[in-house]
């Protein structure tokens, strides 16, 4: 698995369109069609998606919950300006009282917090155009940096928003 595989699977799982094409995904995510095709092949091999692009939500969630922190670990870095993520996401702040802010580094961001390197380097640019993907990736970040309660919340929320 590669980091962009997670982003592609999230986009396919949360998108309201029932049939995203490779060119549409490519334009939306800023990833070439050939890389998206390779990603889908890797995801199919791993059992996250079927030939007809039906996502196995249970399998994908298991990977996010148990595998993601080990395959793509992260430790908060020095404070910087960026886009809020994890418990610092505006919607998640409604549920969690957190003193520390966590951000994906980005010069256009308006929040100062501890640096969390995003799963995919272009993610801060991608999510500015897609609120649903932003929320989903912030939830996924909870598996990488969150505490037990936050991870449980992320799991329950993702069960609601991911579609097969």
Topology:
Elements: H1 3-14, H2 22-29, H3 33-46, H4 57-71, E1 79-84, E2 102-105, E3 111-115, H5 123-126, H6 131-145, H7 148-161
Parallel strand pairs: 2-3
Antiparallel strand pairs: 1-2, 1-3
Helix pairs in contact: 1-3, 1-6, 2-3, 4-6, 4-7, 6-7
Could you explain the architecture of this structure?
- The protein has 164 residues and is mainly alpha-helical.
- It folds into two domains: 3-71, Arc Repressor Mutant, subunit A (Orthogonal Bundle); 79-161, no CATH class.
- It contains seven helices and three strands; from the N terminus they run ααααβββααα.
- Strands 1, 2 and 3 form a three-stranded mixed sheet that branches.
- The longest helix is centred in the middle third of the chain and has 15 residues, at 57-71.
- The chain is globular.
Any descriptors?
3 strands; 2 domains; mainly alpha; 7 helices; three-stranded mixed β-sheet; 164 residues
Overall 3D form:
globular
Low-confidence segments: none
| Global Rg | 15 Å
Characterize the main sheet: 3 strands, mixed
Q: Look at the structure and give the mean pLDDT.
A: 92
| Percent range of helical residues | 40-55%
Query: How many domains would you count in the coordinates?
Result: 2
Compact summary:
This protein has helices at residues 3-14, 22-29, 33-46, 57-71, 123-126, 131-145, 148-161, and strands spanning 79-84, 102-105, 111-115. The protein is mainly alpha-helical and 164 residues long.
């Amino acid at each position: 698995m590669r980091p962009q595989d997670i982003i592609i699977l999230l986009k396919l799982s949360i998108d309201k369109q029932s049939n995203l094409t490779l060119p549409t995904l490519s334009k939306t995510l800023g990833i070439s069609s050939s890389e998206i095709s390779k990603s889908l092949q890797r995801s199919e091999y791993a059992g996250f998606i079927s030939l007809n692009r039906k996502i196995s939500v249970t399998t994908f969630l298991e990977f996010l919950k148990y595998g993601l922190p080990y395959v793509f670990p992260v430790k908060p870095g020095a404070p910087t300006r960026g886009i809020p993520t994890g418990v610092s996401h505006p919607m998640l702040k409604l549920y969690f009282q957190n003193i520390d802010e966590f951000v994906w580094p980005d010069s256009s961001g308006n929040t100062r917090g501890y640096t969390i390197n995003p799963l995919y380097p272009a993610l801060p640019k991608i999510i500015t155009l897609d609120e649903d993907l932003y929320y989903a990736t912030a939830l996924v970040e909870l598996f990488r940096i969150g505490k037990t309660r936050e991870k449980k919340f992320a799991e329950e929320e993702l069960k609601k928003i991911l579609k097969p």
